[in-house]
Amino acid sequence: QPVETFDLVIFGGTGDLALRKLLPALYHRYADGQIPDDSRIIGIAREGLDDEGYRDNLRAVLKKNGNGKVEDFLKLVGYRSLDARKDDGWDDFATLMGKDAERIRVFYLSTSPDLFVDICNRLGKYELNKGKSRVVLEKPIGHDLKSANQINDDVGRFFDESQTFRIDHYLGKETVQNLLALRFGNALFEPLWNAEHIDHVQVTVAETLGVGQRAGYYDHAGALRDMVQNHILQLVCMLAMEPPSSLAPDAVRDEKLKVLRSLKPITEANAAQLTVRGQYRAGSAEGQAVPGYLDELKDHKSNTETFVAVKAEIANWRWAGVPFYLRTGKRLPERVSEITVVFKAVPHSIFDASAGPLAQNRLVLRLQPDEDIKLWLTIKHPGPGGLRLRHVPLDMSFAEAFGVQQPDAYERLLLDVVRGNPTLFMRRDEVEAAWRWADPILAAWADSGEAPRPYTSGTWGPSAAVALIERDGRTWNEDS
Ligand code: BG6
């Protein structure tokens, strides 16, 4: 179904996110016939390009996808060189946008957050925030609770909450949405989805990439702010929330908020037991020798973590006592994002030792590199021999089952903004609750004065991260 005609303006239009993710996502939706030809997509940045120059850049990126519609798509695309802090060009831009309050206008702020207020001020001055206008805020929303509130207040002076779409692209990933279908579309799981039947949950988001060109941003963020405060906590919310009464935006977001508010605080008193920080050193990534973080940064003093593991807990009736082991890092051995739900062992074994060990059931939801759901079950090893047990997965690979490439998260989310559907976007109170949990961890680390533990690029982080889970008699899932 095509969406209504819209204008989408990307501030930070020459940036990595715009060129690598946003514009290709829009192209794919266009090529699928979902974007009407009279829509407009306008890149904005300070660079002195014109429409043609911008299209040339984009053509180079999109050529790889070339299915003949690239030139048609490029007709929708334009560019304006603007500086949020200078007047030049804004009158022309406002004229280009026009005054039609019935037209959907999406302003995507893919810039550093310190420009948000200047951009919103300008949009307000030209009344571009009126009517069917929406603003999309890219993470990070702030650096801590205080700065997040400041950003939300600043933007909130021009765009009310219903116009504000805080994007977390993990919510647009197919597997994450599949969690909704799996949990609430099957009678099988929900009765077991609680502390009585679930032993623990693991979330791993591993990347092989280092920080590369993004060191300037990353060194001020670190893995907890970059990945855990937003993406991983959002996954935890989808996993742990109570069944919402419907998929209405606030029905879902109310339930997610309760999860965030139930996270057990991690403070100075217990941060050393419940968290592990790491920083990569030289090593290898995908067969290539790679430098360490400090060398990339050209600063040998940074205490920024490029790896973090956390043992989190949700203090409510459903989840009391169930650990959620979370870990993420750069320069790990493989790119894999996975949620593992480990069920409790059977209460009593009727099998002889010769049958082999009984393993716990596991549900493994893989987000990346390929989407896949596996339910590990115990069965009898086939054949006439004695009764020997085997642990095998019921496996559903989406690519194999449906024979299609899954759309990128941004494809779904960008069109949800155009449709005005905020279900998969973070509400202000969710962002605040997530910071309320993250801030004391960051403070505890800062107060401890300890440096993150070094790990060699191409390994699974510091050995303390393994100890974090093994202390509890459990191991990180490895056999998906
Ligand atoms: C971004 C982070 O939000 O997510 C990056 O800023 C990270 O550091 C990226 O690499 C991971 O996204 P994905 O979709 O590749 O898992």
Shape: globular
Total strand segments: 16
Uncertain runs with pLDDT below 50, 5 residues or more? none
Measured as a percent range, the helix fraction is 25-40%
Average pLDDT reading: 94
Give a written overview of the molecule.
By secondary structure, this protein is α/β, with parallel strands linked by helices. Helices cover 35% and strands 22% of the residues. Helix 6 links the parallel strand 5 (133-137) and strand 6. Helix 1 (16-31) packs across helix 14 and helix 9 crosses helix 15. The longest helix is centred in the last third of the chain and has 21 residues, at 428-448. It is globular, with a radius of gyration of 24 Å. The two termini are 36 Å apart. Bound molecules: 6-O-phosphono-beta-D-glucopyranose (BG6). NADP(+) binds at residues 46, 139.
Features:
480 residues, ten-stranded mixed β-sheet, 35% helix, alpha/beta, 16 helices, six-stranded parallel β-sheet, globular, binds 6-O-phosphono-beta-D-glucopyranose
Quick take:
Belongs to the glucose-6-phosphate dehydrogenase family. Helices cover 35% and strands 22% of the residues. It is an alpha/beta fold.
